[in-house]
């Protein structure tokens, strides 16, 4: 369906990396392409379908490249994101979130259901009722029952999946299967492996329960970048990783990627060194790199040009950097920050500057930015 | 110059608070008006000028109300914010940030300088050189020398202000005065009082140094919501608080406002209670309430309808609430979150739902959202 975007078709004459205003998102196209291909190969090679979580990139152009590489559709976290991708031509969308709808959001859900192939998460009978009411009189809405595999966030225990599925079916929804998110796998390799095994076990158990209740679950969907390598086996049918497309400091800390796999950085400028000896201030603050500490690594973002230094604190437009050693850093210098957690970072920007071998080759809008509703 | 916006001129027929999609920003107009009037009275009553920091609200409509109440102009943190307010008709703007410009940003600075009354911060000779180069051949750009009064973020010590001011003047800039930000005053009342006194002392000392060097500083600008009450005295001429316009959990924790002074909340929906007994999940996560812990108060945002409970953790679209006691909370319930730090929260949304006595009376766009460059 998708043909790769021709980047020369959207030229940016005279636009040099040194010319753009900071802070700015810099997306390395070579790394992006490698990340997309690697994950597609891993998941396809295991006989599973890949449905990448688009909350990471929020970009039609990135989604098109994932679909072109073999993804079966996209995953999103909000109805607003789903609408953006539907508007952009993506016609197979899973909202991996236990939506509870009323008022305007109920009308929006119904409208979207009537124009694309839509699946929605459910983890309560009350939620199921709101979904059924919103789509009454249309073709039954596909839902997946969310199961908790250890993250302790949302989702029912596998042992309660059938009861909820039966209740949802009674409301008039079509229960297509079950899903889980191994979010407790954001940790070192043994933690990742165990969380992946949890996803496998819980999905298998929940699907069996549904079958015993007379339902036919066809989708068993797992998903989290750190656990994909450990949960890609039958009976799981689908993976929904998001962060792999760019990677970030967290994935690096978890050994879920290498430094060469980081596709996205925040370009920032050193704007002050006046207040504290050994400290410089960069123009990437909480509104550019987000405040996302990780107990495994120091600070909120590492600095590619300054190994051993990091952005250790942020105000709205100020990033605090305690210099390690006595590096040659001057006011006006530009540095690349690798943020700890890339998803909330992307949500803060309007566009990607897309580079190949250090040259800007394109600018892509972030269409689903701020679509949290 | 400004006439108050006529909210009836922008009706939202049939738009009920219960109908809107969550998470959503809810702005209480009565409280907003009280906050604007109170701060204007405090600052004007001390004989100072008020130049509110617009990074908090990022809204032309809110800025117009501040100007209509007597503010002399706006303060911003980025050139992108300045451009938005200039486009909206605000013609007196201070970028309270040590801008360092090159390339596109240098051209943008020059263009803005040529169309509005613009002041820019400076805290290094290198920065001053970039500002002078960007505006060469135009009327001299007004700059204020940033002094550190104890925040230890940016700004030179008062003792070095004159040297920097002379260097800036030599570059061809017009040194209009000095500014500081008592950011170290984000704390309990004694901390606020001391930081306010620091602002006063440092600005007075820096201005004296400039005078001794033959310069004529006419602007001595202080600013931070928690310190305004303690630094509004001669020789300070101007205050730049931002957060006061909405207030937030931090200001409440610092006793810099009362609960009745909170104008902005995040409306959220309870969407899950399946995974952990006593825990509910709301649809306001890090992309709706920001991750801004405050060591004085638990959690990331308090819940108006659930005293004693708070959002204690966030993922992108999930807010974790550990219920205190056994309140009657159901899936689908709507709750108002008072976020700890309102500035990064506003930056995450596209619009304010403006309410008076619980009824939506208007919708205002957040024009300067994501303008961090």
Q: Per DSSP, what share of the residues of chain A sits in E-state strands of 2 or more residues?
A: 15-25%
State Rg of chain A: 22 Å
Overall pLDDT score of chain A: 95
Runs of chain A in which pLDDT lies below 50 for 5 or more consecutive residues are 1-11
Question: Could you tell me which chain pair has the largest interface and how many residues each side has?
Answer: A-B, 73 and 73 residues
The secondary-structure class of chain A comes to: alpha/beta
How many strands, which pairing sense, and closed or not: the largest β-sheet of chain A? 8 strands, parallel
Order of helices and strands of chain A: EHEHEHEHEHEHEHEHEHEEHEEEEHEE
Multimer state: homodimer
Question: Helix proportion of residues of chain A, in percent?
Answer: 25-40%
Span between termini of chain A: 29 Å
Number of helices of chain A: 11
Strand numbers in spatial order across the main sheet of chain A: 2-9-8-7-6-5-4-3
Number of strands of chain A: 17
Q: Can you describe this structure?
A:
The structure is a homodimer of 373-residue chains. In chain A, strand 16 and strand 17 form a beta hairpin. In chain A, helix 3 packs parallel to helix 4. The first copy, chain A, is of the alpha/beta class. The two termini of chain A are 29 Å apart. Mean pLDDT of chain A is 95; it is low at 1-11. Chain A has an eight-stranded parallel β-sheet with strand order 2-9-8-7-6-5-4-3. Chain A has helices at residues 29-45, 60-68, 79-87, 103-113, 125-134, 161-171, 189-212, 228-231, 249-253, 286-289, 342-346, and strands at residues 24-28, 49-50, 74-76, 92-98, 117-122, 142-146, 174-179, 219-222, 238-239, 264-272, 279-282, 301-303, 310-314, 319-322, 334-339, 351-356, 359-365. Chain A is built from eleven helices and 17 strands.
């Amino acid at each position: 369906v998708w043909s790769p975007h021709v980047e020369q078709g959207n030229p940016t004459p005279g636009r040099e990396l040194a010319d753009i205003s900071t802070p700015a998102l810099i997306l390395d196209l070579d790394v992006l392409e490698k990340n997309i291909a690697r994950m597609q190969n891993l998941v396809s090679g295991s006989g599973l379908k890949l449905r990448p979580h688009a909350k990471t990139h929020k970009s039609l152009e990135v989604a098109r490249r994932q679909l072109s590489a073999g993804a079966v559709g996209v995953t999103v976290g909000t109805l607003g994101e789903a609408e953006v991708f539907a508007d952009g031509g993506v016609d197979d969308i899973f909202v991996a979130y236990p939506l509870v709808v009323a008022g305007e959001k109920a009308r929006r859900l119904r409208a979207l259901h009537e124009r694309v192939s839509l699946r929605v998460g459910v983890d309560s009978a009350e939620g199921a009722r709101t979904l059924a009411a919103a789509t009454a009189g249309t073709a039954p809405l596909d839902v997946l029952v969310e199961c908790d595999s250890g993250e302790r966030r949302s989702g029912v225990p596998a042992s309660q999946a059938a009861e909820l599925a039966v209740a949802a079916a009674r409301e008039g929804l079509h229960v297509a299967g079950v899903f889980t998110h191994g979010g407790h796998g954001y940790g070192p390799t043994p933690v990742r492996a165990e969380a992946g095994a949890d996803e496998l076990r819980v999905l298998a158990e929940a699907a069996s329960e549904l079958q015993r209740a007379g339902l036919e679950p066809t989708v068993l969907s797992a998903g989290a970048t750190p656990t994909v390598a450990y949960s890609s086996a039958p009976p799981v049918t689908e993976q929904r990783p998001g962060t792999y497309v760019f990677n970030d400091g967290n994935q690096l800390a978890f050994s879920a990627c290498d430094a060469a796999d980081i596709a996205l950085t925040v370009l920032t400028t050193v704007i002050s060194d006046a207040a504290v000896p050994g400290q410089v201030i960069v123009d990437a603050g909480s509104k550019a790199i987000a405040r996302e500490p990780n107990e495994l690594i120091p600070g909120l973002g590492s600095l590619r040009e300054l190994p051993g230094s990091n952005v250790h604190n942020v105000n709205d437009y100020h990033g605090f950097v305690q210099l390690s050693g006595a590096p040659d850093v001057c006011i006006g210098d530009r540095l690349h920050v690798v943020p700890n957690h890339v998803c909330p970072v992307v949500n803060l920007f309007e566009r990607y500057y897309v580079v190949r071998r250090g040259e800007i080759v394109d600018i892509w809008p972030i269409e689903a930015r701020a679509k949290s509703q």
